[in-house]
Amino acid sequence: MHISEGILSTPVLAAGAVLTIGGVTLGLKKMDYEKIPEVAVLSSAFFVASLIHVPLGPTSVHLVLNGLVGVLLGWMAFPSILVALALQALLFQFGGFTVLGVNTFNMAAPAVASYYFFNFLVRRGNRSVTAVAAFLAGALGVGGGTFLIALSLVTTGEEFLSVARLVFLAHLPVMLIEGIITAFCILFIKKVKPEILEVGK
Amino acid sequence: MSQQSTVRGQKDFSKSWDFFEIEKSILILRRSKTFLSRRVGVAISFLLLAAYCLLLPATASAHRVNVYGYAEDGKVFVEGYFVDGTKAMNSLVEVFDAETGEKLLEGKTNKEGVFSFKIPKLTALKLVLTASMGHKNDYTISREEVAEALGRSGTSQESTVRSQQSPVSSEQSEASKQRAGQKEEVTAEGAVSSKEIEQVVAKVLDRKLLPIKNILLKMQEEASRPGMTEIIGGIGYIMGIMGIVLYFKSKNR
After folding, report:
1. Chain A residues with CB inside 8 Å of B55's CB?
2. Which member of A66, B41, B219, B242 has the greatest number of CB atoms within 10 A?
3. ipTM exceeding 0.85?
């Protein structure tokens, strides 16, 4: 889920950087003292999730977890994901520093969206509502991310519909697994430490 | 080589078997729909859908594409693979003259993620591979490697190789003449056979070095994957950043 360096044009890179700076500023403003460790833990979860490939059938899949990060952090998903992606670029040359803005926005924007759509349901709903909302949040994180990647690749001349379809089909299993994992995580958190679900401010 | 091909064969076989199996079970499910209660039917078809999803190629979820190339017998072979080891199939390969930056040719990788072409001219070659979903990487083959591959194939470069060789062989022949004081016929024979020997040695070396080449390729592929130390290190960095942020925020309190 990383776009490599040297593919996107400068206006797209600049737009991504500006949007990410905006999101990160907003996220840092919303971040209280008590929330910092949680942001860091979710940042490491995001960092590790996409590095571990689980072999399944002839191919392998990995988690993205941006939906989970979003539901739990809201706008704070921006700084959290930025740190994780910066380290992946630094340590493994995934993506790169010029595309960091675009890549962060592509992952963090759906995360914030899943916060606005599902955080309330997750907090207030009964067990089954919580599970369904969390599943959808996880799926939306990956789905939205693939949509934004396809959108940013349109500018390179790739045809949007064909790219979007390819990306979507390839990520269907990831969305499914992601949704299930997010549902289990949220259910567990709600049972053990429900105050984590409050994003505050 | 034979081992490789059997492994590939097995893989293909198992893949097709999986799809066949799924289709078969869907058929059985359709036929026996009346016998199953609706809920069980729905559950099973959901599971089958999930299984089908898992069998789709998910190369798009990989992070980085690697490209590697080598020149051999007048040809260049380009291989592309993703970090998780899947081959970069049907990806665009562009070949540039690394010295002038001029584009020489382009092509697409096959099912094994390999693209090969005849060396267009003697120069360093820059191979740029663009896979789907915004993955891109490049690899440069040095002028020396290209020259050697051309020389051995015996095309236009052969004459220069021969002219380079001749002073060496004449030196050798003079040395042998002084040492043994033999007739000139022998030295002529020696010159011919030294070239033959070189060809034979090159052939044998190629064969002997093939497994080592494969091992190196495999190691390179594995080294490009994230290791445990780096993952733990990354978590450490994040915790460190958290500490710094907490420190500055605590001052403000």
Report:
1. 57-59
2. A66
3. no
